[in-house]
Structure formats: C-alpha cells, structure tokens
Amino acid sequence: MFLSKYSKTNIENDFNIYAEFVFAEPEKLRELAVTYPIIAKKLSLFIIAYTQFSAKYQQDFEDYFARTGLSDVAVQPDNFEMTIHLDLNDLKPQISQ
C-alpha cells in the first residue's frame, strides 16, 4: 500500500512521501498505520532510518515520534534488518544567490 501515486514511482519517492506525512500530517499517518499493517511496518522503517542516521539528532527524532504517537503505532517487520551508513562530516552548506 502506498500513501500516494507518486510513492509508487520508486522507493526513494515512497520514503519522501512518508517524510511528508510524518512531519506535516502525523495524525493522519497514525490513523492509517492503525488501519493498515503495511503502513505501520513502513513507518517503523522510516523511524529506524531517522533515529539511526545521526547520533546528534537521535534523541530529538525519538522524542518527536513519541510525542506524535507515531512510534506507538509503528510495527517492526519480521525478519528485517537495516543498516544505514552515512557520513555527514564533510557536508558543508552552500548558499546560492
């Protein structure tokens, strides 16, 4: 199950739509996760990705997911393991005019 037609185009777009719902419409996503087990599982993967990508922001994201009730309805898929390797040390913001 997908949250939008755009989500069906590829896995990255599916992830992006979850981000949109997580941060713009958490109540709606929470309701969908309660109704549809596949959404609850995909939400769990999203939460894992966001809480593991940076130790600096981990607690902030965990707090957000708990405060919005999203972590309460997320269901970790069976037999699934996810490892994220991301190095942000050399990331420099650029301002264009």
Largest sheet: none
Helix segment count? 5
Terminal Cα span:
41 Å
Over the alpha carbons, how many angstroms does the gyration radius reach?
Answer: 14 Å
Shape: globular
The H-and-E topology, N to C, reads as HHHHH
β-strand percent reads under 5%
Q: How many distinct beta strands? A: 0
What this model shows, in words?
By secondary structure, the chain is mainly α. The chain is 59% helix and 0% strand. α2 crosses α3 and α3 packs antiparallel against α4.
Pick out its properties:
5 helices; 59% helix; single chain; mainly alpha; 97 residues
Provide a brief overview of the structure.
The protein is mainly alpha-helical and 97 residues long.
Topology:
Elements: H1 11-24, H2 26-35, H3 37-52, H4 55-67, H5 70-73
Helix pairs in contact: 1-2, 2-3, 3-4
